[in-house]
Amino acid sequence: MAGDLQLTQGMIDEFVAKNGDQIAKVTYSKATAPELVGKVKAQQNAGRVDIDLVLTGVDGLAAGIDQGLWTPLLPAYASRLPGMTAYLPGAAAMQKLAGDFGVTVTYYPSGPLIEYLPAKVATPPKTAEELLAYAKANPGAVQYARPANSGPGRTFLMGLPYLLGDSDPKDPVNGWAKTWAYLAELNKYVTLYPSTTSETMKNLANGSAKVIASTTGWDINPRVLGTVPKEAAVGTLQGFHWVTDAHYAVVPKGVDVEKQAAVLNLLKDMLTPAQQAKAYDKGYFYPGPAVKDVPLSMAPQESQQAIGEYGRPEYEQLIANNPLEVPLDAKALVAAFDKWDREIGGAKVKK
To answer: Are 73 and 261 in contact (CB under 8 A)?
Structure first.
């Protein structure tokens, strides 16, 4: 997965450079979660698996577990991966989602946050009710991307049940009465749902959207890249809970034992603080490291510079002082996406 590689390719390349006896070279290929699952399955059916390691998000991990594509790495190889005992509490909770199959390699608290330009929005919404009132007073000004295609979109969707005090935030079908009512009301004042997060960022920059759904990484990285003006600001809605996110390493079934051993050595190295510090990147998955005691001062100079200039000091307090929730499991997430597409915004998604 492209986003995962952005954080981990440096870790992998350094291991290969130092351990040529174990891994001579690496060929990278990128695919969306559905493409990835289809590709691995086809190779397994043909009895010729040439993908030795997959780096993926919750979506690809879950789809592969569902179809029985991944080799169980745990508890069999737990002793080979000592870094897993040093996970941050949020990363440890994300590891539980992976069951015995995936190994958490990067982690971030994610969102939901709102983002806006202070020059265009003098008094940003501070509660979910105020966001709705703002949307009503400014039709078309509030925007979030289709949740099935967007980290901030799906984080906003999964964060609302906590903000609104729904009966069961983990059950989108029977426990989200307030959330679906809220989204249906908000939908009256949303003119379109972009199909990618990048589109919402561009719309914020050009003024066609005034308040968008965001996350820590989507706030920092587009400002580093210049897609969004540096002066863009973020806010939280009163009573919010973080909905966390992670990237995982999984090994397809059919990879031979020798290659598996090399992959486990690579993963062991990736979970050391020195390698984890590379996950700061340019704020794409901020903070990024999954293990404890990896301060920004350990990160490459480029990362320190980008986050020093574009990061937000308030994130530390926000991460420390607000509850962390794991996202919905695969089945519930699919149900939530399906319901959103059918009943809320599917007809207004910009293709």
So the answer is: no
